[in-house]
Amino acid sequence: MAAPSEMYIADATKGFDALFSNDIDGAKAIFGAKPASPFHLLGLGSTIFLQACLGMESGVVAEAVKALNEAEAAARAQLKSSKSAKSLTRFPPGTEWEILHADAVVLQGLTNALSETYYGYMQSLYALNSAHSKFNKLHKTVFPRGVDAYRTPSTTPALSRASSMQAAPSATLVSQTPTAKTGLFGRLIFASAGPSTEVRTDAPPDGALEEMIVSGAAFGNGLFNLVLSLLPSKMRGLIGFLGFKADRPAALKQLAVAAAISTDPHAVFAGWQAEEAYILKQYLGIIERLESRYPKGTLWILSRAKLSLFTYKSQEAIKTLQDALAPGAASGFIQADALLVFELAWALLAEARYAEAAEAFLRMKQMNSWSRVTYLALASGCYILMGNLDEAQKLLDQIPSRFRRTKPGEGEIPTESYIKQKLVDWKEKHAKRGGKGRLVDVIKISPADELAIIWNNHHRMPKNITIIQIGKLTALSPLPKIPSPLQMELAAASDNGLVDLESPEELASRSLLLGILYRTIGEYKTSRLFFDDCLGRRARLSTSWIPSTAMFELATLDLLETESSTKPDTVPSTPGVSTPNSVATSTAESAAKELWRKTLNAATTKLDEAVSLSTNAPAMAGRIEARISMLRDEIVNKKAGLGL
């Protein structure tokens, strides 16, 4: 007869199957039917957590916090009572409850971080500190030799009890005594550690309970490290003082291991977390596993579309998203469906299908209450790009009354801070021109174009559309002093004696956009000139997000330019045979390595400066720093690959 824990896992897994097949109500019904089971309580908390993090709605976030608090308390109670019981697995008694408790705590931390405020980050840090020692201990118990020997979805089939014996590491005896921690909290937590016990570890998981433990340990530690790596730099500095070290590559590896476990829900969560930072092969392996298990799951449809976008198959991505959103095809998981709509809107914007993009952004208002102001500004920006100023003005008129009211201690949504400042700037420009006419008439750079920088959307644009956009921006007066390598017919200048771009902010914004667009089509020299021009204006942009973003984009340009100039020779040389060609190849490789060393060091310096500049734009600092953090990881990986 199965143990109660295994019966609870089997039943709770049905709830997760419903969740990842878009049946939110069915999942909640299954999880809610057994309120005494920590597995079900965590399932309910995880379901509401997914709704909260996908929808970013304050009411749902509060509900998620409540559910996760109940799950954490139930798991803690079970953990306490299990210490004297006989273990149901090869792991120490109560390990499964340790996993559940740590999962609940780290999800609490993630939920607190959704606010994108430093108060929320501090609450998140408090929760993560509580989870840190648990995951560290669990990881050492379950993976004493690390996770490198475990399969991941991109290379092999899933681990299973029948087939994994040959590939899994051999079983070993390890001590459970925790190692000393260097961090302050770590030392306090481990000061009263109990006696060590010997357990058999890193053999293949045997049964649902052990699958849950192995997958849960990899998932929890991976997610924990991923969260730390994406916190703003000030928070990472604090967690470093406390003894934590963010390791994003290791985090993604651990999530991949979790994703390889065939039936445990942790595997599905791990696959969902593995986004564009994964190499495409790893990502594809995860998506294919989950699609086969949940063919109608919205999250995996979204992942498939993202994969198409990563590989510049934008039309394929748009079709995937539109098919999933067709009448009768939409799921009951409205937060996930909203993600499909939002992704579709950006894909359509990159293809210059402005009316359709505006419609998609406006559709978000009915699906999600995160920031209606942001959706209105984006839709208005789409109409400005297509020249439909009447529709753009109608949407602009709605914005002032739609700003979200913040509660005490709650931060303003970064994009709403940006839009609020843009309204001030536009009204000031409008007043300088006598206050006549419409506000939209003074807007020469679309807010959709500027927000697309933050969402890194311009790299998706086809070359022909990019060139058209370059022409539109170049035609704005005063004309740029930097010559264009492109042959373009510019629109005739206005005869009303007024220039299009007046403020340092507007001029810097155009230079930033042109730098990105020229880089998109491979015109690196011209791109660099525009980034330099943008940064040359930073002394007059004391509270702007533009200089820090330009410095980040310049670092990205450094890397792309070096990558383009050091592509390996396609003619192979014969190993071990010294020929003029092979000698030349060796010399070229040495020169390329030296060029990469200089480039990577220069890019790192630029990223340091970008972080420093981001303090001048606190509203957008978190988003900018997240992109900087991810690019730093790519630099570390490149250095490792080159042996630098």
TrEMBL record:
<protein>
    <recommendedName>
        <fullName>Mitochondrial outer membrane protein IML2</fullName>
    </recommendedName>
</protein>
<dbReference type="GO" id="GO:0005741">
    <property type="term" value="C:mitochondrial outer membrane"/>
</dbReference>
<dbReference type="InterPro" id="IPR011990">
    <property type="entry name" value="TPR-like_helical_dom_sf"/>
</dbReference>
<dbReference type="Pfam" id="PF10300">
    <property type="entry name" value="Iml2-TPR_39"/>
</dbReference>
<dbReference type="InterPro" id="IPR019412">
    <property type="entry name" value="IML2/TPR_39"/>
</dbReference>
<dbReference type="GO" id="GO:0005829">
    <property type="term" value="C:cytosol"/>
</dbReference>
<feature type="region of interest" description="Disordered">
    <location>
        <begin position="563"/>
        <end position="583"/>
    </location>
</feature>
<dbReference type="GO" id="GO:0005634">
    <property type="term" value="C:nucleus"/>
</dbReference>
